[in-house]
Design goal:
The complex is a heterodimer. In chain A, about 25% of the residues lie in helices and about 15% in strands. Chain A is an alpha+beta fold. The model of chain A has no long low-confidence stretch (mean pLDDT about 85). By secondary structure, chain B is α/β, with parallel strands linked by helices. Chain B has two domains: about 240 residues, Thiamin diphosphate (ThDP)-binding fold, Pyr/PP domains (Rossmann fold); about 140 residues, Rossmann fold (3-Layer(aba) Sandwich). The longest helix of chain B has about 35 residues. Chain B starts with a strand and ends in an 8-residue tail after the last strand. Classes of the chains: A alpha+beta, B alpha/beta. At the A-B interface, loops of A face helix 8 of B. Bound molecules: iron/sulfur cluster (SF4) (2 copies). The site of one iron/sulfur cluster (SF4) has 13 residues of chain A, from helix 4.
């Protein structure tokens, strides 16, 4: 999986959060929407078939999170820490390279 | 030198606010506490109080403005009652959760319907689960003193919780009594300036207050409100002691009156405590072993003090101006909870009385005593009793 471009932010905020709870649950530094992983909400997850993909990037453009990055060969790759399983990518993909499958933990 | 003035509890509350020097007061008028912001606006207009007085369009906005101001890092104050407090309900949780030491004066009044502007405690009792500290004043002097005390406790770093101070509608809000106004310098020394360390807006150091907490953090955040309430028990004792040292007036979470050797103790809050004490004197003259106890602090609930009190009597008669339907009064639930695991406990009899400004007379208290004596004799009794109910109109 490609590395999140927010990696440094995430680590910074995660460190902050792992410290003691502040009175009033104050977030002492901004960035909580980055650190709060939204992947846990997911019921369905996108299952990607690289062989079918034509690299049109519609999934990349439409992902609302955005949880899709491009790898070294410019194929889409999914960040499951943030993918909320909305299925938009699968819906947009013109060649059905993405299908939503029930997540089994 | 402190001066004595004759004033209503509403004015006493406004004076307390003036002495505490809040930087922001946001208020919407509601009977019976309208006079509090009215008087404060006078102080501000006259230059006697250097504060921002925000006129808002509802109580929801009043407390929201207070939350905003307190989050920005200044001392804030407002006053309300009844439906106004109920309208604040949503934001009360937020103020406590954000640990903002706002102080609200509540002119304790009944809730609709039917509309009734007179006294009972249903309004603030209904907010007992918001995390706010709650104090109840017996007279106008206590209204002033307890507001100062409330600021000091609320702002203590071990507490950091908002606080409300209740005083009975009309019985106190509109009744004049001599009230000692402490020296400004003495109050300044007692309270000090509010310097928030946990919450203040500083563009150079951005923070997010009242943020979203996922399931992984929400429960811990709520627990810290629980912890702060627990801490408040000790802090309140310390502040009461300091107040007594500086101003000479003694406060206790539960004030006892002629409880030594008492078989029956009448427990109540607010101005009714005055009536009950006089009634106890009246019965003591006839040799009846009866005492009184007054809760000055209702939240955090003084569990330890209740357990001590319970050791002194065979019957605790709880006199309450509030009702939780199908259960009884709020004190009844709190007292039962506090004593449930004690090996020896008195019988607890609950009395609901004086709702919506119904006068509580010695005759009503005689009725309370009759039932309490039955409980003392080991006879059967109703756990919850409505006193002074006009059965003929039902
Ligand atoms: S399922 Fe939704 S959130 Fe997940 S990658 Fe696809 S578009 Fe993005
Ligand atoms: S939409 Fe489908 S084809 Fe286009 S890049 Fe995404 S996975 Fe590949």
């Amino acid at each position: 999986m490609a590395e999140s471009p927010f990696k440094a932010d995430i680590e910074r905020v995660q460190k902050e959060y792992s410290e003691k709870m502040t009175p009033g649950a104050i977030a002492k530094i901004p960035g909580s929407s980055v650190v709060n992983k939204t992947g846990s909400w997911r019921v369905f997850m996108p299952d990607f078939n690289r062989d079918k993909c034509v690299r049109c990037y519609l999934c990349y453009i439409y992902c609302p999170e955005p949880a899709i990055y491009l790898d070294e060969e410019n194929y889409p790759t999914f960040d499951y820490d943030y993918c909320k399983g909305c299925g938009i990518c699968a819906n947009e993909c013109p060649v059905d390279a993405i299908v939503m499958v029930r997540e089994s933990k | 030198m402190p001066v004595r003035k004759v004033m209503k509890a509403n004015e006493a509350a406004a004076w307390a606010a003036r002495l505490a020097k809040p930087k922001v007061i946001a208020a919407f008028p509601i009977t019976p506490s309208t006079l509090v912001p009215e008087k404060i606006s006078e102080f501000v207009a006259n230059g006697e109080l250097d504060a921002e007085f925000i006129k808002v369009e509802s109580e929801h906005s009043a407390i929201s403005a207070c939350v905003g101001a307190s989050a920005a890092g200044v001392r804030t104050f407002t006053a309300t009652a009844s439906q106004g407090l109920a309208l604040m309900h949503e934001i009360l949780f937020i103020a406590a959760g954000m640990r903002l030491p706002i102080v609200v004066a509540v002119g304790n009044r009944s809730l609709s319907a039917p509309i009734n502007i007179w006294n009972d405690w249903q309004d603030s009792i209904s907010e007992r689960d918001t995390g706010w500290l709650q104090f109840y004043a017996e007279n106008n002097q206590e209204a002033l003193d307890l507001i100062l005390i409330a600021f000091k406790v609320a702002e203590d770093e071990r507490v950091l919780l908002p606080a409300m101070v209740g005083f009975d509608a009309f019985i106190l809000t509109h009744t004049v009594e001599p009230v000692e106004i402490p020296d400004q310098e003495a109050v300044d020394e007692f309270l000090g300036e509010y310097v928030p360390k946990h919450a203040y807006l500083d563009p150079a150091k951005p923070i997010t207050q009242g943020t979203l907490a996922f399931p992984a953090h929400y429960m811990e955040a709520r627990y810290t409100v629980w912890e702060a309430n627990e801490n408040a028990k000790k802090v309140i004792d310390e502040v009461f002691a300091e107040f007594e040292k500086r101003f000479g007036r003694k406060y206790q979470k539960i004030e006892e009156y002629r409880t030594d050797d008492a078989e029956i103790i009448l427990v109540t809050m607010g101005s009714l405590a005055g009536t009950v004490k006089e009634y106890v004197d009246h019965l003591r003259e006839k040799g009846v072993k009866v005492g009184a106890a007054k809760l000055t602090v209702y939240r955090p609930f003084p569990t330890e003090e209740v357990r001590e009190l319970a050791k002194k009597a065979k019957v605790l008669a709880l006199l309450e101006k509030n009702v939780t339907f199908s259960v009884g009064g709020a004190l009844f639930q709190d007292f039962s909870r506090a004593l449930i695991n004690e090996s020896e406990k008195p019988r607890i009899v609950d009395f609901i009385l004086g709702l919506g400004g119904r006068d509580v007379t010695f005759r009503d208290l005689d009725e309370v005593m009759d039932i309490s004596k039955r409980a003392l004799a080991g006879e059967e009794f109703d756990e919850v009793n409505w006193i002074g109910l006009r059965k003929e109109v039902l």
